[in-house]
Amino acid sequence: MRHVIIGSGPAGVVAAETLRKADPAAEITLLCGEGEPPYARMAIPYLLKGEIDEAGTRIRKDANHYDRLRITLVQARAQAIDTAGRAVDVGNGRSLPYDRLLIATGSRPSRERIPGIDCPGVQACWTLQDARTIVARARPGTRVVQMGAGFVGCIIMEGLLSRGVDLTILVRSGYMVRRMMNPTASALIQQWCEAKGVKVLTRTQPKGLSMNGGALRVDLGEGRTLPADVYLSVVGVDPNLDFLAGSGIEIGRGILVDANLQSSVPGVYAAGDVAESTDCLTGKRQLNAIQPNAAEQGRIAALNMAGRPARFKGSFVFNVLTTLGLVSSSFGEWQGVSGGESAEVLDESRYRYLNLQFDGDRLIGANCVGFSEHVGALRGLIEGRLRLGAWKQRLLNEPAQIMKAYLSAAYDAA
Ligand SMILES: Cc1cc2nc3c(=O)[nH]c(=O)nc-3n(C[C@H](O)[C@H](O)[C@H](O)COP(=O)(O)OP(=O)(O)OC[C@H]3O[C@@H](n4cnc5c(N)ncnc54)[C@H](O)[C@@H]3O)c2cc1C
Among 31-40, 373-382, 405-414, which is the least confidently predicted range? Predict the structure, then answer.
């Protein structure tokens, strides 16, 4: 059996390892599209801070790991897939035949559509190569203007500040991390960043970029400009799908997969940031671009590829974010549902906030700032769809009693 995996991030690597265990005699080829050994993007913030070196970003630290497992690494990008002929075109007239194919190509930074976005000094923060460029350029006093304050935008701030840069964050909406935080949580995170010396300009979107001498000029409209040595563009990500044109593989926002993570084309699977699967709470299709989801989907897809039926139980939306040392998290349907109830507790001076969302006597979502000790209990209650019974009313009165509520509900459910 010939297994080809396109993409050597967490989804691809876990899939290759799972395949080796499940199918000792198979041929396994892992395509690495960036000319790098397999690495984890989530290590990049630590690299920026100088806490690890490049070797520390590798998904597996042992250099012989892939040889030992007889996983062939090929440094090439997939250009196209011939699903009828079962082959991946990797350019230069070369193609890789497969019996089972996994697409684990992840996502790439969304591109801002503004004039000047190709100017020198404009930079994303997604790949190891991006991180190298940022490390080389971010020096004490370097003026960094960062567009975007989503998950990645927030998580990289600590590394930037640790290098002594002068950091200004532009936020298109009124709110930082608005895809995972409600306005109260977002405001707390903003205040925290400002207290650490970051300038945050909300409701601000550049009209264009231009060069002014050796520096960049960021045009904010109405005659306002900002000088910058580096313009970091971190405005979200899009799945890597371009090479699928003409393959017949059905695509929504990502590759549409069934419960076995198989695409619309038999024998072709997808996992990780690129796969559009179902949410375990709502049953709705969605992309869930976080590493634990990628690793789990890689494992499940590989079992199916090896002929061992396995079902993905659906992705659970949760994010834990550290912004300049402030831990915040969001779970499930944190925006609430119609007819639901909510409870919250806020201690602004200590940057602590907890918001709980209920549907009937179930907790369905939460936002937390500074309450890192409750992450496990919140996840357990929400993902486990545990009934709270009498604890629902107690939590409405005292949201911070979440740990006790979890222990009680988990005990009742056992
Ligand atoms: C700075 C940063 C911090 C993050 N922090 C966290 C965190 O704390 N927690 C968390 O859960 N997630 C975090 N993430 C997100 C996390 O890294 C992703 O969800 C995860 O990497 C997804 O894994 P994946 O295997 O699906 O895709 P990726 O890791 O993106 O891997 C995809 C691979 O496919 C390759 N590829 C793409 N196209 C082709 C092609 N045509 N041919 C061959 N290869 C191709 C790419 O080069 C890449 O190697 C962070 C991301 C960044 C950038």
Answer: 405-414
Ligand 1 mean position to 274 CA, how many Å?
9
Ligand 1 atom 2: residue of nearest CA:
42
Closest ligand 1 atom, residue 243 Cα: 41
Indicate which atom in ligand 1 lies nearest the CA of residue 237. 53
Beta strands in 177-323 (DSSP E): 199-201, 208-212, 215-221, 224-228, 230-233, 237-239, 255-256, 268-270, 275-278, 285-286, 318-323
Question: What is the chain's alpha carbon radius of gyration, rounded to the nearest angstrom?
Answer: 23
Is the CB–ligand 1 distance for residue 12 below 6 Å?
Answer: yes
Does ligand 1 have an atom closer than 6 angstroms to the CB of 240?
yes
Q: How confident is the model at residue 280 (pLDDT cuts 50, 70, 90)?
A: confident
Separation of alpha carbons 16 and 4, rounded Å = 9
Amino acid at site 150: G
On whether the CB atoms of residues 357 and 380 are closer than 8 A, the answer is no
Q: What is the DSSP letter of 184?
A: H
CA nearest to 264, candidates 281, 252, 272 = 252
Q: In what order do the strands lie in the sheet with 87-89?
A: 80-82, 87-89, 95-97
pTM: 0.95
Residues in Cβ contact with 242 at an 8 Å cutoff, skipping those fewer than 6 apart:
none
125 lines ligand 1 (CB under 6 A): yes
Parallel, antiparallel, or unpaired: how do β-strands 285-286 and 275-278 relate?
antiparallel
Give distance in angstroms: CA of 174 to centre of ligand 1. Answer: 28
Q: Is the CB of 39 under 6 A from ligand 1?
A: no
C-alpha distances in Å from residue 375, one per residue of 215, 288, 370: 43, 18, 10
- pLDDT interval class at 411 (50, 70, 90): confident
Predicted confidence at residue 150, as pLDDT, reads: 96
